[in-house]
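re the bet — no i am not wrong, look at it urself. input seq straight from the record:
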Amino acid sequence: AAFHAIHWYGFKSQGSALISDFSPNYHVNVENAFATAPAVAAYTRALTGQVTLAAHSLGNMIASSAICHHNARVDDYILLNPAVPLEAYHAQTDPHPNLVHPDWRPYVNATPSQERLLCSEWYTLFESTPEDPRYKLTWRGLFSDKKNTRFHQFYSTGEEVVNNPPESLWEINLTLENGLTFETPGDYAWATQELWKGRSYELWGDGWFTGSRLMGWGFNRRGYEHWLDVFSIFGMPTPEEAGRDIANADLIRKPFFRKRPAELFSDNDEIARNYAQTHRFRLLARAIPARTSGAGGTAGSGFTTSTDMNDAEKRNGWFRVEGKDPENWKHSDIRNMPFINVKPLFQQIMTQCNLKGNAP
């Protein structure tokens, strides 16, 4: 067997943050992941024999896109702690209630629900014209075309990075600027990034560290003003009762969420469609929130196999004895824990993927 390793940081540049075009912004790095996928796919097509591809965390955005969008030649694909929403692999996955920003929950919980106002649901306005590129501006089913590749999900119910967020997550995150840190670095990091889409202050730009001013959970302050809007940073929109009277046709040009980028909502349909076609992955990365749990912390449908690494049978003892929930299999334990501890998992992977030999 031949082993090929790809080390990918996700940054704009591989150089020093002090001297290069560098960004720790997660949304930027998701966009970079999509841009990297064609090269990975081409690399796999040059390989011979059985090909097994393994990826960890955000690396699964690259690997999944390489397989589903760029015809990577992969027999078995091992998804380790994927920082990807479950809905991408199975479009019918139920949304997670805590992945709705608190400012938007009144619209979701209204009777009848006004979910159609949400950025994540804007694509449904084009259901009657599925050939319209705007109909593809959703995470749902993004990686459903798995070709002939077997997808093996390895998640952990002990996850701290891609775990399900608590209902109060946003209230906690509002105090981050005052120096609050979670007990474990990285707690709820993936969900936090999804809830920050569209929530950057105007003066912050698109968020060097996090967040963006694009669509997301922001409001269209110039389209659906409230008389108290002057007192609100992010805008106070029309109450949920009045939102029921907005026609779907109006939402195409004048969305209820933040109306940015302007080209996507142009009065000229050709401009809007072309923008959606050209910037699809950028909009998914920076503007369109995921609504379902992350595949790294929750079992999902749409996979050939699904394994909880937090199961005691997937480990051989455990080196970590201190810190928060030391017994849990955390986001990067596949690489951080001694091999003797994680050997049973590697043996399972070799069996599931029909790899020759046994783990040493």
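see?? Strands lie at 52-56, 76-80, 150-155, 305-308. told u. also The mean pLDDT is 83. so pay up
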